[in-house]
Write the structure tokens for this entry.
Amino acid sequence: MHSYDGRNIISRMRYASDHKRQTHQRIVEAASRLFKGGGYVGTGVDAVMNAAGLTPGAFYAHFPSKNALLAETLALSVARMKERFLAGFDERTASTWLRGVVLRYLSTTHRDSVADGCPLPALTADVFRADGVAREEFEAHLRGLLTELEGNMPTNLGSARDRALATIALCVGGLMLARAVKDRALSNRILRACRRLAVA
């Protein structure tokens, strides 16, 4: 007879739960890069699962839909974006904080690293065409970003909230245009012009 060992069963249950969580995260990580790099519409579930080292059939064990996956990639990408572009400026004044963030964001490095960059310029058009869940997630993260910027905005030009909204729009739109044009000199000029206006 085999003896009952509750500890082994609990250990296996913990392993299974942790394994599923890690697999889930691997899919989100892969999708985040692919959606930003190749577009949400142009990236199929099969490509995401292949990039994560998994079979396409396993997708629906983790997500009810592709739009639900998009919502999770937005959460991950926005968190990474804040770490990359907003960190390290805590001791600066509002004007120098704004300048530092803008210079990081509207840089040639960020322009050229689409898959690792901010999701807003890469996925805004796709989110507009997605269902309510993805749009709600997008808006929630945009509002959170707006609140974070608003608290660090110089107030010499009026409302800090309006200044934060305009700065986000200028940075996101400027980066989108800089990526879209073929002429590299024009692309660089777009970045420079947007930087100047954003910190004026």
In short: The radius of gyration is 21 Å. Residues 6-38 form the longest helix (33 residues).
